[in-house]
């Protein structure tokens, strides 16, 4: 590279002061040096400010911003607006990056101008494990694909297939798509869906050295099933609105068969999550209504019924101990 482009590392933080140093140290450990790291403290009541100020005072590449609590996506948006980099790297305050992440992926994107967004694999570790043993993390069921258009959009329908910290993207994406929506959990899924609908190209980078190191602990939501289902319902409704708006313009020249499939899949998955949420919350009338709709739209009645019974059991177990 003739000159090293600036990378903006975006870190929102809410009461993750006990993890924040690890995230910031992973920025310092990068073999690529031309970066800025913007930490947005989203109204934390712990020692997040002490940690953020410490790093800002020790290295001018760190920038610390405080805001009143407004949610994860609002903190990301604040950092995005303050960023100056040609490339944007997301990172949560409780996670870390392997030390070749910036170096290898900047080189990849500088050499391949058709790639707009690159995402890496994930290694997970347990916070309570003193050895921090790293294992491949399988948070998602979809294939890890590269490309754009129909194949990419279809892969995003069930849910996201990478975490925000996996992603490095060109600034032009932010300039075209804008910021994330109000924080309701899964806001990154809706954001990447919009990016896909704008015709940007995604690339899966499976190399060692660029992976996200994802921490599992008692405060993160990766494994809180019912909370995530409720968030998915809210976000899927938003994604359906986004989908309908894009389909009116159809700038990507999507086929009519694909458009019909897309709308049907969204409806089917929304109904399935509504059935699960209602049954778990013991709203049995709504739950049975959505369950019957799920058996019809999914074409898999036995799967729908067994899933409904499983979440009914979890709800009763929680209620009666």
TrEMBL record:
<dbReference type="InterPro" id="IPR029044">
    <property type="entry name" value="Nucleotide-diphossugar_trans"/>
</dbReference>
<dbReference type="Pfam" id="PF00535">
    <property type="entry name" value="Glycos_transf_2"/>
</dbReference>
<dbReference type="GO" id="GO:0016758">
    <property type="term" value="F:hexosyltransferase activity"/>
</dbReference>
<dbReference type="InterPro" id="IPR001173">
    <property type="entry name" value="Glyco_trans_2-like"/>
</dbReference>
<protein>
    <submittedName>
        <fullName>Glycosyltransferase</fullName>
    </submittedName>
</protein>
<keyword id="KW-0808">Transferase</keyword>
<feature type="domain" description="Glycosyltransferase 2-like">
    <location>
        <begin position="8"/>
        <end position="177"/>
    </location>
</feature>
């Amino acid at each position: 590279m003739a000159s090293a482009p600036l990378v903006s590392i975006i870190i929102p933080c809410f009461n993750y002061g006990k993890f924040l140093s690890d995230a910031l140290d992973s920025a310092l450990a990068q073999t690529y040096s031309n970066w800025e790291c913007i930490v947005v403290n989203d109204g934390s009541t712990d020692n997040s400010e002490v940690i953020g100020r410490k790093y800002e005072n020790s290295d001018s590449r760190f920038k610390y911003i405080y805001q009143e609590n407004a949610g994860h996506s609002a903190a990301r948006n604040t950092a995005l607006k303050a960023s100056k980099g040609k490339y944007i790297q997301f990172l949560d305050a409780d996670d870390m990056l392997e030390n070749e992440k910036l170096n290898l992926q900047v080189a990849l994107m500088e050499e391949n101008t058709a790639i707009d967004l690159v995402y890496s694999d994930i290694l997970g570790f347990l916070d309570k494990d003193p050895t921090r043993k790293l294992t491949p993390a399988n948070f998602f069921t979809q294939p890890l694909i590269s490309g754009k258009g129909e194949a990419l959009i279809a892969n995003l329908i069930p849910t996201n297939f990478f975490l925000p910290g996996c992603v490095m993207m060109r600034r032009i994406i932010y300039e075209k798509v804008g910021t994330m929506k109000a924080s309701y959990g899964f806001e990154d899924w809706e954001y990447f869906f919009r990016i896909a609908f704008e015709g940007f190209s995604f690339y899966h980078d499976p190399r060692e050295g660029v992976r996200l190191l994802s921490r599992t602990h008692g405060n993160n939501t990766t494994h809180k099933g019912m909370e995530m289902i409720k968030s998915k319902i809210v976000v899927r409704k938003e994604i359906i609105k986004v989908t309908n708006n894009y389909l009116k313009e159809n700038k990507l020249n999507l086929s009519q068969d694909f458009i019909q499939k897309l709308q049907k899949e969204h409806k089917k998955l929304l109904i399935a999550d509504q059935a699960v949420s209602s049954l778990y919350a013991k709203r049995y009338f709504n739950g049975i209504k959505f369950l019957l709709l799920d058996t019809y739209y999914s074409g898999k009645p036995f799967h729908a019924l067994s899933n409904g019974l499983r979440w009914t059991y979890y709800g009763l177990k929680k209620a009666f101990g």
